[in-house]
Amino acid sequence: MRTIELKRGWHNVNENGDNYVSLPFESPCYGKVVLSLIPEVGGAHVYADIDGADGVIDVLADGECAGTVMGGVRKLCYLGSMTAGRSSLSLEMEDGGAIRRGVTLHYTQSDVYIKPYGIFVRTDSADGEKATLTVSADMTGGESVKRRLILDLEILNDRGKRTCRKTKAFIYSGGEKSTSVQIKMRRAYAYETDKPYLYTMKASLKTENGDVLDESSTVFGVRMQGAFEPGGLIGTTVPHSNGILGEISVRDAERRKLSALRDLGYNAVRYIGCPSAAALDAADELGLKVIVDIFDNWTHPREGSLSHLTFTHDCEERAALAVSILRNHPSVVMYSVGNKPEENLGRKGSECRERIFAAVRAADPSRPVACAFGKPVPTERELAERGIKRSDTRGKSEAELIALADECGFYSSASENMLALTDICLCADGYVPPEGMPNIRIDTMPENAYESMTSAEYDQMMLGDFSVSGMDRIVHGATVAGDIDHTCLPRNSGLYRSMLAGAGGSFILVGGEGSGMLEGRRYWKASDGEKVSVRVFTPGDVVALYLDDYLVGRRLAGRVNKQFASFDVEYRPGKLEAVCYLRGRECDRVSLTTPDAPASITLLTGSKRISAGAGELGYIDVWVTDGNGEPVTDYDGDIRLSCEGEGEIVAMGNEYGKSADDDMVTAIGGHALVAVRGIKAGKLTLKAQAEDLRAGRVQITVKD
C-alpha cells in the first residue's frame, strides 16, 4: 500500500468558529471539535492510521463511523473505498481532544494488497560484508480463486541505487496470507551505533504477466538483534513531550531531543508507549538503541488513559500492530509488554499475559521480549496469603506495606508466572530480579547514578542502566527535572551521568548547600566574602582548586567520593579553576569566571533553512552575552520577540518550559529557545529586544 501523511488542509469546526489547521493539532478550546478534510488520494482499500490521539475520537469516512480511538491508543481504521477529491475524512473529538502526532492514509487500488506495515525485513546472519535476510510480506483481499502472483523485492542503498533484487512466485487463493523470501546480500553495510547505515526495501505485488497490483516500501538496517554486553546500555526513559512544544511530535523536535542525549554519551533510550514515526526515524538516523514498553498499563487504569477499558478484547491486536510498526526500525532492540503492570503480580487481567507474549513473538521472533517490574503496594489479602496477619498491616503506610512484602518474598513469588515468559527483566522501584536473569535498571535517580552505573562491574547479568527521566516534563503543572531541560541543554544530572559513562569531562557546581549532591549553579558569582560551597565532578581522583591562581586546597575525588570533591570557598570575583589529576597526572582542567555585565542578545540557529508547509521547524537559541560575546549565565530577564516575513513563531520558552506570553520570554540563565515555522517560500526574520541590551536579529530562508 502507498502512504501519505495528512498534515495540511484540515477544517476545524468548534465553538469559536471555523478555521483551517495543520497536524499535529492541539485543540484551542474545550467542547466538541471536528477536524475534516477531503483527501487528494483515494483507493479501493483505504486505512486511516491515527497516532497520538488524546481523549475519545470518532473516525468518520463520508459520514459513517469507521472506528473509535481512545486514550492515546494507536489504531488502524479501515475506511473501505474512497474517491480522490470527493470522499471526506472527519475526526470528531470531545473536551479538547488532540492529534499530537498525525494521521497517515494507507491506500491501494488493487483487490489484493500488502497490508499496512506488512513488510518485515529480518537479519538472519551478518558476517563481514555478507548478510542473509528473510523478508516476509503479509497480504490480504481478493476472491477465493487460485492465481499465480509474484512478489518482487528490491533493496536500495542510502543513495537510492539498487543493490539487490529477488522475486518469488506463489499461489494466492484469497484472504490472509504471508509469504517469505530469503535474500543473500554479497555486500552489506551493517547498521552500527557509530555508523547507522539504512537501506530501503521496495516490494511489488505483481500478476504473472508483470502487471503491478500493489507496492510497499520500508526502511531497514542490517543488524543482528539480541546481543548485549554487561552494562553496555547507558540511557534514559524519554517522555513523549518535546520541551517548549509540549506533547506535539515533529521530526526536528525529536531529533533535537535525542541528539542532546546522544551528545551526553547515552547510547539507548526507553519509551513508555509506542513512539511516533518522527521519534523512531530520528533514533534510526542517530544510531541509538531503543526499548519500547508497548503498553503503559493493562486492565488497571492509570491517570490520563482510557486504554484499559478495551484491553482484554484488543490487547493482541494492539500488540501486533505496535510490533509491526517497530520491527523494521534497526534502532529498536527489544520490546517490553508493559510498564510495571499490576498484572505482573497475578492480579486481575493477568490471564492476558500468554496471549500478549505470543502476539509479540509471532509478529517478530528476532528480538527479546521484556517486561518492567516494580513494587506496587500489596493488598491485605496478598500479604495474608503469605502469612502476614491483618493486625500487622492495619494503619501501615504504603512504604511500610512494601517493606513487609519484601520481607516475606511477595514480589518474587507473585511475579513468577510473568517472569517465566520474559527474556529480560526491566527493574524499577528496587525490584530484585531472579538470580541469573538478564536485567536492566530503568529508574535510576540522580543521587544513585554512581552506584547503579558501576553495578555491572560485579553483576554480569545487568545489561544497562537508565535514568528515571531524560528530559524535563510537566506533571500536574510542575516541572520534573530530567537529564536535559526543556530547551535540550544538559542538566547537572545529565552532566554527571555523562562523566560516569566516560563521554563527558569535569564540571563545577557552585552553591546548593543543604540540597542534593547535584543541586547548584554553573557560574561563579556571589556576595563578596560569602562562604560558598564548590563541588568539582571529575573522572580524576584528586582535585586542586584555584581562585585567580591562589590554591584554595586539594581534595580527594575518585571512586571513594563518587567522583567529586567538595570545597568551601570565600567568594571574590575572578576565575575559579579546578585542575584534576588521575594517578598523579593531570587529566582535566575546568574553570568558571565571574560573568561580565550583559551587553547584547545573540541569536544562534543550527540551520538557515526550513521547509514551508511541511511541519518542519527552525530552532533559534537566544543568548544574552557580554561585551566579549560570552554568555552571561546569571541573567534572568525578559526578552521581547517578533517575527517578520514568511513564517511564524510556534513556541518559545526557557529551561522551565513554554512561555505563557505570545511575544515575551524570560531568558533563564541567559538563555531561551524559540521555535519558528515557515508558511511559504521567502525570508523569515526573527528579532529579539530587551531593555539596556543591543537587539539581536537573524534571517532564515523558507523553502518549498
CATH superfamily of the largest domain: Glycosidases
Any low-confidence stretches, pLDDT <50, length ≥5?
A: none
Biggest sheet layout: 8 strands, parallel, barrel
Domains counted in the coordinates: how many?
5
Shape: globular
Describe the strand arrangement of the main beta sheet, using strand numbers: 19-20-21-22-23-24-25-26
How many H/I helices? 10
Indicate the CATH topology of the largest domain: TIM Barrel
Which architecture of the largest domain would the CATH scheme give at its second level?
Alpha-Beta Barrel
* Average pLDDT taken over every residue: 92
- CATH class of the largest domain equals Alpha Beta
Helix content: 10-25%
Q: Please tally the β strands and state the result.
A: 45
Name some characteristics of this structure.
Jelly Rolls, 704 residues, mainly beta, Immunoglobulin-like, six-stranded antiparallel β-sheet, TIM Barrel, eight-stranded parallel barrel
Explained architecture:
With 704 residues, the chain is mostly beta strands. It has five domains: 2-108, Jelly Rolls (Sandwich), CATH 2.60.120.260; 114-220, Immunoglobulins (Immunoglobulin-like); 233-376 and 414-480, Glycosidases (TIM Barrel, Alpha-Beta Barrel), CATH 3.20.20.80; 505-593, Immunoglobulin-like, CATH 2.60.40; 600-703, Immunoglobulin-like, CATH 2.60.40. Helices cover 13% and strands 44% of the residues. The chain contains ten helices and 45 strands. The strands form ten sheets. It has an eight-stranded parallel β-barrel, surrounded by four helices. Helix 1 packs parallel to helix 2 (277-286) and helix 3 (311-326) packs parallel to helix 4 (353-363). The longest helix is centred in the middle third of the chain and has 16 residues, at 311-326. The chain is globular, with a radius of gyration of 28 Å.
